[in-house]
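User: Can you help me understand a structure? I only have the sequence.
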Amino acid sequence: MPKTRILVIEDDDDARLMYSIMLRSWDYEIIEAPTGAEGIRIARQQKPDLILLDIMMPDVDGYEVCKQLRSDPHFRTVPILFLSALDAPDDRIKGYTIGGDDFINKGKVEYQELGARIRSALDRLQRLRLEMRGKQHGTSLGLLSLRGGVGVSTLALNLARHAAAWSDTPTILLDMAFPVGSIGLWSGVEGSRHIAELLSRNAADINLLLIQSFSLQNAHGFWFIPGPANILDLSGIRMEAVERLLHILNEEGYLVIIDLGRGTLPLSWQIQSHCDWVGVVTSAENTSRTLAAIALNALAKDEETRRASLLIFNDVTNAKPVDISFGLLRRPDVFVPYTPDFQTLSEPSPLAQLLSIVTQQEEVK
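Assistant: Let's start by predicting it. Here is the structure, written out as tokens:
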């Protein structure tokens, strides 16, 4: 079996040598680059499994290296760990924002901790690959939060818009933020042909033509099925119908984005168990972080469902959190910086990063 290949991009010769010796002692294959520009070239040529990246380099700094690599589809899920003398909150936030998987302070990290954080990043990547291995059709991502006001519906809408603009995969957004959805209301759609009515049908009656009859096309190219515009009795919704709906869309190759909104209803937790992926959305506010940790704990206990859980930090207030991971069970998988307009997010877009995780088009081997 080939060894795991790690690229060390570091302009300090002594530091680069020390890291290389240390990593080889853990049986990794090591590639070295003394400059940022050389690091980009070698990364694209050698395709490493993980990158250790210094920030302060004289030609191209580490932030720019990360930004350029994340714009390449191959490197959208390759772990990039910043290893730097910088450690101010703004430095760490910038590193996470542009796509870094971890931010390690050179002067504070111990030998054993560095090894553990490298293994953790590699293990996380392997789990993501295994989750999607063998999937030849579509995939579904449910988005939820136990805390209102963290932008779940806005994120779902803009993720669908991004997918329609940058992917050939057909995309459909299902508004299941019960009891009343937002997507249809934002689109000015009301009426009886909504997702709750569809899911109240017998599962055997649901087919592609029926799904299409409930679907509307957004001006940006994706399809959506709106939620109810009024409070309704949801007891008629059948889980067999949910499973049938997602199975058909999967077979047809759709990327299915499900807005579960504030997932505090038991119904929402039944629906998410049928998704391939579940994204828990949180923000800087302390209650939001606490509730996100509770949600992740609940998902971790549910071993019967075949899906992966993702933690998405959506900076809705531009609160500049001191530590993005504070109070959470793990570092967020995707960091979405504050923006009044998702379409102005700098590249590599966190929306593209999220899509690359759930579709794994470039990384499955």
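Now, to help you interpret it: Confidence is low (pLDDT under 50) at residues 361-365. The first strand starts at residue 5 and ends at 9. Let me know which part you'd like to focus on.
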